Amino acid sequence: MAHNLLQGKKGIIFGALDEKSIAWRTALKCHEEGARLVLTNAPVALRMGEINKLADTVKAPVIPADVTNMDDLKKLFEASMEHFGGKIDFILHSIGMSLNVRKNKPYTEIDYGFNQKTLDISAMSLHRVLRTAWDLDALNEWGSVVALTYIAAQRVFPHYNEMADAKALLESVARSFGYHYGSHKKVRVNTISQSPTRTTAGSGIKGFDGFVTYAEKMSPLGNATSDDCASYCVSLFSDFTRMVTMQNLFHDGGFSSMGVTEEIMVALEK
C-alpha cells in the first residue's frame, strides 16, 4: 500500500539491471510512493539489461553514464535537472563490480590492476557522484543519498573477495562526504548493509547460496528481500529521516547483532 512518502520528490536511481536488482525494486517503490525518476547505468549494462522495461513502468528517461567518467556524470546531472525542471531530492547508488571475482582470482592472488578498477567502480564512484552533485549544486537541501553495501566490510566472508575492501571504502566515503555535504547543504548520506540478496551481481560470488542459507539461519527475522530493502530506501529518501546521516544501517533481519543462533548450534552438534 502506497503512502505518498515521496510525493513531489525527484531522484536518480543508479544500477537497475533486471527485475532481481535492488535498484529495480527501489525504482518501482519510489514511483509507487509518488516520486519522479531518472534511471541510469553504464552503457554496457544498458545493453545487457532490461532497463527500458522498467523505464516504461515508472515513466522515467534512461540516461547512460559511466560512473568512472566525470564528464558522463556531469551530463547525467545536467540532463536530469533539465528533465525535472529543478534540483534533485535523492540518489540511490547501487553499483558494484569485481573483475577479480569474475576472473575467479582468489583474494590472496588478486590482480592489482583489476583491483584498482573494482575500487574505482564500486567505491570511488560514490565520491564522483557526490562531487558532481556538489559542484553543480544539484541536490536540494535535506536531500538524501543512499549507497548499498554488505557486512563483509566489517567481517570476513572468504569468497566475497576484494568486494569486502570496496565496500569498506564505500562506507568511508559516505561518512566523510556526508560530513561535508551535511554541513554545507543539509544533505544526508548513508549506506544500507543489506542481507545477501539473490541478484544477478550477487549470484556471481562463489558460494553465494551458502551465504544466503547461513544468513537466513543466523537472522531472527530471516533475510531481508529486495522489496524490503526498497521500502527501507524509500524511508531514507523521505522527510521522516531528516536527521539520519553518515550511518551504515544494517538491514539484515538482525544478522549483524547475532553471535550464534540455536538453529546453527543444533546443526553443528549433529
Quick recap:
The chain has 270 residues and is α/β, with parallel strands linked by helices.
Going by helix content, strand content and strand pairing, the class is alpha/beta
Which CATH class is shown? Alpha Beta
Biggest sheet record? 6 strands, parallel
CATH superfamily: NAD(P)-binding Rossmann-like Domain
Unreliable runs:
none
Strand segment count? 6
Averaging pLDDT over every residue, what do you get?
Answer: 94
Cα-to-Cα separation, first versus last residue: 44 Å
CATH architecture: 3-Layer(aba) Sandwich
**Largest sheet strand order:** 2-1-3-4-5-6
Count up the helices.
10
Range of helix content: 40-55%
Beta content = 5-15%
The best one-word shape is globular
Question: Could you walk me through the main structural features you see in this protein, from its secondary elements to its overall organization?
Answer:
The chain has helices spanning 22-32, 43-48, 51-58, 70-84, 99-102, 112-136, 163-185, 208-218, 226-237, 262-269; strands at residues 10-14, 36-40, 88-93, 139-149, 188-194, 248-251. The chain is an alpha/beta fold and 270 residues long. It has a single domain, classed as NAD(P)-binding Rossmann-like Domain (Rossmann fold). Strands 2-1-3-4-5-6 form a 6-stranded parallel β-sheet, with helices on both faces. The protein is globular.
Question: What are the defining features of this structure?
Answer:
single chain, 270 residues, alpha/beta, Rossmann fold, 10 helices
